């Protein structure tokens, strides 16, 4: 029971992301553009293996070599010949590896590959069960001997050099009893050289607070070469000058390790309004960095869904009317709302550790505050991810289930739209720049929580991520989710999405019910041993559940019960008659606090508030530690997605689609990298082996 969260069932759901019709409607030039962007994304996405855990790259290569030689069906026959049953075929990997054709052809290499990852693959030692820093878990953003204090010192150093942490990793070494730190930048170029627009002295050795820091280029170099090469090829098929300039800057970023170049590319990306083929690529989200500053590589390529995008365009047009409805004073809102693109997309390619339902980017505070951003909703992801079977719907009353299934998709569409556009797109950061200039009037702005003048703000190169570090991602997701809950009560918003009358009320009810249920489900992602959360969004939803439970007056009910099978179960209920009163008031108060603490860079106050609601204990009105065991007992594994491939066929691009099954998923990956598979696998193993001593 204790370790059940670390096991996945063999019958996990697998679904294909359908983008065939959208792709075939593209012109030949647009298809070429999408192809090379996709290739860049897929190669860059392999860096995630090197950003996760020491064994990840080796496991990937092991499986690629197995399945390049034999399909799953052929391997099942091998397993049967080796005396394994159908169930054992899926569970007893070592026996299958040794009986495989890949092993027969290269026994020494395959034995070494198996030995390099098998122990860690199955390890359930406390530190190796989850991502974390120091003794709280495993990460390859930092060498194994780094702790929170090292991460904090490195952040101060990076701030002093005006370097972003987004594309870095940190390695701590001992030099005669003195700690030395290596900051490694992701780049194709491995030698030190000046980059236009970047601090010329960013690479080299420096003394900072009596510690030696060395900044080097060349992390993931072989992968960054492939990313840059494909982006250069995509330039020939760009639709306009903004796209060409964007790709030039991205190429410069991945070639030289320049975040400034990536920011410049992002500026051109924002200016590229309404493209038919939408994309973004880089070291983007910091959710999986235990310190919350380093970005995981991701890249997506998608085609605009025009019908759904019209709804989001109406929401954008209404934004300036809706923003004043939010519960903070106008001084805490951006001076000007920069109307972004907001489109619904059918994903062709999404390379990274997972596929979200929506995105608000870029994540650079200075650009978002003064130049703008874009929002996207991933329509074909939503269509597949949130299809629910009644018999698998847990923790709800029977009378809620049919309504939940009917309105879960439409309500989530509303929530995603509000979350991305008016959640992540709202709120002002108070900043004093390097020249001492403020972006707000100190003499006039009052903190609504204290009634006193604002007394704290961001200084110089400080950013939201660098300041709030470990809680920044989840705190911001919580703020955006609260905005969605709050504004979905607005009839104008519901009308934009086509919901009127009773249907509109049902959408509101299911959206709020879905949120409190998600807060309960979020307990799966809490680790009691380290008292830490492993997933930013689920922590955010648990916090919201706590806030709404605290509101009282019967708004939310949560009780432990016995299931029909006699095992522990739980029921969560929501009084729909109190959403517009008790619920709205609770979110109003909490959301205002979140924004004020964020605007004023009040890290101490922000941590106290957020950590307090994030606490999972066995005391109080609800025993959340015991409820967590119930959640694990009845959890449903998340679906996996199968994505298509593209390949050049003469002067045109062919879309290769796969069935929504484990075999289809495997085939998509073996064919995705088949042109240079052996060299690519060798490069991954070399990069993994080079850093192996750093994780001990």
Automatic annotation (TrEMBL):
Instruction: Give the enzyme's main class according to its UniProt record, as a single word.
Output: hydrolase
> What residues bind Zn(2+), as annotated?
419, 424, 477
Listed Pfam families: Peptidase_M49
User: Which residues constitute the catalytic centre?
Assistant: 420
Required cofactor(s): Zn(2+)
Q: Which GO terms describe its cellular component?
A: cytoplasm
Q: Principal localization?
A: cytoplasm
Keyword Acetylation among UniProt keywords: yes
Q: Which UniProt keywords apply?
A: Acetylation, Aminopeptidase, Cytoplasm, Hydrolase, Metal-binding, Metalloprotease, Protease, Zinc
- Record carries keyword Signal: no
Protein EC: 3.4.14.4
**Which N-terminal residues, if any, form the signal peptide?**
none
Protein family per UniProt: Belongs to the peptidase M49 family.
Entry protein name: Dipeptidyl peptidase 3
* Taxonomic source organism: Dicentrarchus labrax (European seabass)
